[in-house]
Amino acid sequence: MAERGTSPSRPPGTPPARGDDGIRPLTKAVSVFVLPFLTAAVLLLYFFPGDTEQLFAWTIQPPLTAMVLASAYAGGIWFFVQVLRQDRWHRVRHGFPGALLFATLLAVATVLHWDRFHFGHISFITWATLYLVTPILLLAVLIVNWRADRGRPDAIDTTIPWPARILLALFGVAALVTGLVLFIVPTVAVGSWAWDVTPLTARVIGTVLTLPGTVHLWLLLDSRWSAFRWVFQAQLVSLIFLNLALILCREQLLWENLVTLPVVATLVLAPVAYVLLYVYCERRARRNRDAGAL
């Protein structure tokens, strides 16, 4: 299902031409492939975070970390559902590099901490298979869609103001750098993070942080609201799940650590900033539509 106000769709059965902004069939197929796994992971990690020793591929402690990972997966569900709904590559393209980095880092973390996993458990077999295959599939998606987007806006669109783009890009750099530091040197977070972490869970948290970091960097190159609208929706979903997790697991927060207040404040304020920008850009896009109809 395409959004209103877009350019006419191709006739059914017609393959997308290079540069027509169409989403290649492989993209939809990969979305269909990953959605059941993401859904199962959210159900297990968000609703049963204290039972990962029995239910999941590896034991995650404290439960807050399990819910953080589930929150990232919840945003992924929203994103890949939008990929299935849309017919324009530029609307979803900026979410795929982050998803590729996310899947690749989790695959590396799995190898580095192989001894922590529950060998033979169906969840481990699923996890290992998923992170062996998914990075390859996501890379293939980026390759087949590489020249699909010519930089054209939607029929109903606007530009994101440059101050917002710069601020979000700076936030993205901070998130990406923090995430990579946690992944490369996870021991720096042990005993100093906002809640208890191990080297493996520090790497997982770092991997989650690379998602918004990677997305926001594209704001330096692309000002089209339609290129970020659906990705920002996915990030909002993740942040809603994250904030609820903070409330439910508030006793697990280590307020004596210096990073706790900044981390919590960022997670609380981020959805407010996203909503304000979202509403502003939606109103501008509607005004552009109304002005064009006169």
From TrEMBL:
Regions that span the bilayer: 29-48, 60-84, 96-114, 120-146, 167-194, 200-221, 228-248, 260-280
UniProt keyword Transmembrane helix, yes or no: yes
Record key words, sorted: Membrane, Transmembrane, Transmembrane helix
Nucleus keyword on record: no
Positions of region (Disordered): 1-22
Coiled-coil regions listed: none
Entry protein name: Uncharacterized protein
Source species: Mycetocola miduiensis
